Each structure stands twice: as structure tokens, then as C-alpha cells.
Amino acid sequence: MKNEYSIRIIYIVLMGFGFPIMRYMSLYFDPLNNNAIRFLFGSLFLLLICVFKFRSILKDCLADPILISKLSLLGLLMTANMYCFMNGLRHTSALTGSIFGILAMPLGILMIALFYQDERRKIQQRTFYLGGGLAVIGSLIFVFYGNQATAGNESADFIHGAFFLATAIFIQSLQNVIVKDIATKLHVIIISTTTATIAGLIFLALAIFSGKINQLSVVSDSLLIALALSGIYGILSGMLLAFYIVQKQGVVIFNLIQLLGSVNLYL
């Protein structure tokens, strides 16, 4: 139990830094290039761990067509999620992204409760619905006044970003359902490695096809290195730790921890 609390605290702290880092990188890189570099370097780091420690498990996983299809679907959802999220941050702010993270909490919990009885038992308290409702209302008020505080093109830009963030949290809710299912069969490092690799390759293909990849030629080497390192940081904190918490403690606990992580950004 003590170890579980330590993991929760580590995740909250790391995610508190994660939003500003993603927001900063979104200002200098197109979302396709941004996600391609971050996911690929993050997946390469995890792949090295898999080769030395989980090689046999990885081979067994690749031989299971049902498992491969679920991992592929998870990779597609992760791709859509991060594309929308990075676009949302680009047009709003790290704080707005954190607010939408609060909105994701009740949505994600209600979504997972539809599929899993053990998760439903965790939300059979009136205080959960009261707290979730207050979080949603407070977040919507922030979004409304954030929109009112801007004008003209900035207002339209905020609405554009808010739409992407709302889409991202909906996709994330679906994503957690699949993660919970796969996490009963695979180690979280395997799940994280395959998901990040699939998402990274999709983003790379889209960047090449759209011609956005050419923008990387005018970016400084130091900024590219920073993006690659932020990718490793993001995969370890935002994916590996997240999947671990879902596997060991459930989606309801994970979403409540995300709520604390979002509040942590204010501090």
C-alpha cells in the first residue's frame, strides 16, 4: 500500500511539469512533428528495456492476433488523443489543458463503469457525484470566462483549442477501457512500448505525407534534442506510470489522481 501511494505522488509531481513542457514544445513544432519525435524517441527508450528484459514476452505478444489488434487500436486512439491534445494546447494554454484534465475525470470514470463491475463499486457513493459535478461546473466556468476574456481572432482561437481538448478527453476515456483490458494480460512496459511505437510511426508517416517533416530542417539542434528528451520524459511519466496505475489500482483511482495532478498545476 505504501508503494502505491508513492507511485501516485510521483505521477502527480511529474505530470505537474508535463503540461508546461508540452505547451512549450507545441509553440515551436507542428503537432505532427512534435508527436512523431516524442513518441519515437520515447518508444526507442522503452524498446531497449524490452529487448533486454521482456524479449520472450514481446515475441509471444506479436504472435497473438487478438492482442495485436487491441494494441493497434490502442495505438490509433493514442494517436488521435495526442494530436487533438497538442492542437488544443497550441491554441489555448497549459492551464486550459489542465482544466480539461479535470473534465476528463468524471467522464472517464463513468465510461469505465459502464464496462467493469469492479470500477462501478468504487463510485457507489454520493460524494463522488457531488465532487465530480462541482469539478465539471468549475471547469466549464473557467472555459467560459477564458473565452470571454479574449476577443476577435483570439476568441475564435480559444474555441478552436477547446474543441480539440474536449475531443482528446473523450478519446482518452475510450482508451482507458482498452488499457484496463490489456493490462490484465501484459506488462505495462510492453503495452507502453507497442502503443508509443505505433503512434510514433503513424505521426511520422503523416508528417512525411503532409510535408510537415521539412519544418524540422529549420529548427535548431538543441531544440530537437530537447523535444526528444521531452518525449522520453512524457512516455515514462504520462504513459508508463499511467498504465501502471490503471493496471494496479484501477481507472477510477487513476482519474482521481489525474484530478490532483491538474490542481497541482495551479500551485
Question: What are the key terms here?
Answer:
267 residues; 0% strand; single chain; 11 helices; 85% helix; disordered C terminus; mainly alpha
Mean pLDDT: 78
Q: Name the shape in a single word.
A: globular
Query: Helical proportion?
Result: over 70%
Q: What structural class is derived from the secondary structure elements?
A: mainly alpha
Give the ordered list of helices and strands: HHHHHHHHHHH
Strand content: under 5%
Low-confidence stretches: 263-267
Please summarize the sheet with the most strands: none
Number of helices: 11
Q: How many domains, in number, for the residues?
A: 1
* Overall radius of gyration: 18 Å
Describe this structure in words.
- The chain has one domain (2-264).
- The chain contains eleven helices and no strands.
- The chain has helices at 2-26, 31-53, 55-62, 65-91, 94-113, 117-122, 126-148, 153-182, 188-210, 221-249, 251-264.
- α2 packs across α10 (221-249).
- The protein is globular and about 55 Å long.
- The two termini are 27 Å apart.
- Its main location: membrane.
- The chain crosses the membrane at residues 9-29, 35-54, 66-89, 95-116, 128-146, 158-179, 186-211, 223-246.
- It is a multi-pass membrane protein.
- Pfam families: EamA.
